[in-house]
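Checked the freezer inventory, then went back to the computational side. Two predictions to log before the end of the day. The first one is the construct we discussed on Monday; recording sequence and tokens without edits.
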Amino acid sequence: MSDVLTARDNGEAVSEIYSVSENVAWEVAKKVVRQEGFGLIEEVRPEGYFLTSSDIGAFEHGALVGVWIEPVGKTKTKVSIISKRKVATNIFTKLTEEEFHEEFLRELNFQVKQGRLPASVLDFSP
């Protein structure tokens, strides 16, 4: 997991800003990694991040993931992710940064359609 933390320190995270509270972002992010088959989530909530990993599968050798959740003002949250292959020579990874953000947005859409979140969470204007 130190590779993920070092990558974060080096500015390698892929970030998006969402119109949701820190708590909503935290729960949605955890749901995304769980749905993608990642295991135990090591939450370091006081420092605003969690780490998780996936096991070796048929076409990939597992991945290490770190997700950072940072409030941006009162109504927005910055969500950053780093996904690293456990084996550097492996072509495939379980979840890329782009896929994570796609799934995050898909989950927000689902929660809006279910009436759990207001439609305003899908507003991406600055």
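The second is the one RB wanted added to the comparison set:
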Amino acid sequence: MLLSDTDIQSLIDSKQLIIDPYDPKDLREASVKLHMQKSIIKYKDNNLVDLRSDTDVQHYDFELYDTGYKMQPNEFFLGVTAEKITMPNGYFGLIQTRGSAAQVGLEAIFGDGQVDPGTDGHIKLPIKNNSNQILVIYPGLYIAKLYIFQMSSPALHPYTKA
């Protein structure tokens, strides 16, 4: 069952769902706004990535400037939410790109858009410019929405970083 703003606020008030920082203005009808953190992860060009291997992909950390970052067409990086999310067991989050961002070709989630029960941390957002335009990205930019669903029962094995 998808939670309404009333149910989401009740979870936050009872400290079962923790969103830090949280601004009540970010609560929508059935979602919570998520914003870009200043730090992003960019991958080095022409990497060979063996998905069966535990080898780390070559990358470097990059800071977004307050004046903006010009994201080139087809460019990809991993963004991180400014908000730290603690999802209670028995609930599941789904992240979707903000509608107005998607309409200009920015995709903030294309695959791994879930927040499992037991998640406790900032959420990585795979971000890609699918347009033929240069898009300017800023730290603090409202980029995605978090929808929260109540599960039929708590998970036997909630997510852990182990």
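For RB: The chain has one domain: 5-45+59-150. The radius of gyration is 17 Å. Let me know if you want it refolded.
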